[in-house]
C-alpha cells in the first residue's frame, strides 16, 4: 500500500493542479484518459504592434547557424544533436540570445509544419504561418527579460520576412495560459483533437470556421 507520505504528496499535487487548471482543466484531463483529447488553436497577427522589451542584461539576439549546433548542445544538453540538425535542415528557425558570448535563452519556430506530441499529429498551417515552441532560458538568467526580448526579436524577424501570424495550442481549461497568451496578442481561432475507442481514432480540426485536414504522419 502507498505510504502516508506518498498519499499526501499525491493529494497536494491534485490540489495544486485543481488551482492551476480549474474544474474545466481537470475535467478535460480526465476525458483525455478516456480517449478524447482537444486543444485550442490560437494565433497572433504579426501586423499588430509588437511591444518593446528592454532586457536587464546586454543581449545579442540572432538566428542559430548549422555551424553552431555544438554551442546549442552546451546550452541544452538534454537535446540530441541529430534532433537539432534535423530541425535546422527542415527549415525551422532557432532564435538565440547571447550574453557575454554565451547562449542564455532560445526559442524555436516551426515553419510549414509543426508536430503536436499531445495529439500525435501535425498542426495544419498555412505557408504564411509560424508556430513558435520550445522556449528555454538558463536558470540564472530567468527574470532578466531575456525570454521576452528573444520573443520580440523573433516576432519582428518573422514580420519582416513576410509571415502573417504565429500560431499555437492551449489545453482547454488552462485559464492561466489563456490569460497569458491574450496579453501577448493571441486569440482563439479554432480547435483540434480526436476521439478514440481502442485502436480506432478519428481526428477533427476547425480553423477560422473551416474544417481543416489533419496529418498523422510526422514529417
The residue fraction in helices comes out at 25-40%
CATH homologous superfamily classification: Gcn5-related N-acetyltransferase (GNAT)
Low-confidence stretches: 9-23
Strand order of the largest sheet: 2-3-4-7-8-1-9-10-11
| CATH class designation | Alpha Beta
Q: Categorize the overall geometry.
A: globular
Biggest β-sheet strands, sense, barrel = 9 strands, mixed
Tally of individual helices = 5
Would you list the SSEs in sequence order as H and E?
A: HEEHHEEEEEHEHEEE
Return the domain count. 1
What fraction of residues sit in β-strands? 25-35%
CATH architecture, by name, is 3-Layer(aba) Sandwich
Average pLDDT across residues? 86
CATH topology: Aminopeptidase
Give the radius of gyration. 19 Å
N-C termini distance: 45 Å
Q: State the secondary-structure class.
A: alpha+beta
Query: How many beta-strand runs?
Result: 11
Characterization of this structure:
- It is a single chain.
- The chain has five helices and eleven strands, in the order H-E-E-H-H-E-E-E-E-E-H-E-H-E-E-E.
- The protein has helices at 4-33, 69-75, 81-89, 146-160, 175-183, and strands at 36-45, 60-63, 93-99, 102-111, 114-116, 121-123, 129-137, 165-170, 187-197, 200-207, 210-211.
- Residues 9-23 have low confidence and may be disordered.
- The chain is α+β, with helices and mostly antiparallel strands.
- The strands form two sheets. A nine-stranded mixed sheet has the order 2-3-4-7-8-1-9-10-11, sandwiched between helices.
- The protein has a single domain (21-211), classed as Gcn5-related N-acetyltransferase (GNAT) (Aminopeptidase).
- It starts with a helix and ends in an 8-residue tail after the last strand.
Amino acid at each position: 500500500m502507498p505510504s502516508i507520505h506518498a498519499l499526501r504528496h499525491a493529494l497536494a499535487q491534485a490540489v495544486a493542479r485543481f488551482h492551476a487548471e480549474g474544474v474545466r482543466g481537470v475535467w478535460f484531463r480526465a476525458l483525455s484518459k478516456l480517449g478524447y483529447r482537444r486543444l485550442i488553436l490560437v494565433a497572433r497577427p504579426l501586423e499588430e504592434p509588437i511591444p518593446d522589451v528592454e532586457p536587464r542584461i546586454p543581449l545579442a539576439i540572432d538566428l542559430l547557424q548549422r555551424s553552431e549546433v555544438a554551442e546549442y548542445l552546451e546550452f541544452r544538453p538534454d537535446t540530441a544533436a541529430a534532433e537539432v540538425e534535423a530541425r535546422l535542415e527542415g527549415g525551422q528557425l532557432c532564435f538565440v540570445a547571447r550574453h557575454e558570448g554565451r547562449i542564455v535563452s532560445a526559442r524555436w519556430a516551426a515553419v510549414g509544419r509543426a508536430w503536436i506530441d499531445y495529439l500525435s499529429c501535425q498542426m495544419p498551417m498555412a505557408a504564411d504561418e509560424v508556430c513558435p515552441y520550445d522556449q528555454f532560458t538558463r536558470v540564472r538568467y530567468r527574470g532578466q527579460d531575456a525570454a521576452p526580448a528573444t520573443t520580440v526579436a523573433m516576432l519582428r524577424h518573422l514580420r519582416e520576412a513576410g509571415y502573417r501570424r504565429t500560431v499555437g495550442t492551449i489545453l482547454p481549461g488552462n485559464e492561466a495560459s489563456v490569460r497569458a497568451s491574450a496579453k501577448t496578442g493571441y486569440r482563439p481561432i479554432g480547435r483540434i483533437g480526436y476521439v478514440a475507442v481502442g485502436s480506432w481514432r478519428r481526428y477533427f480540426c476547425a480553423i477560422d470556421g473551416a474544417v481543416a485536414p489533419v496529418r498523422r504522419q510526422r514529417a
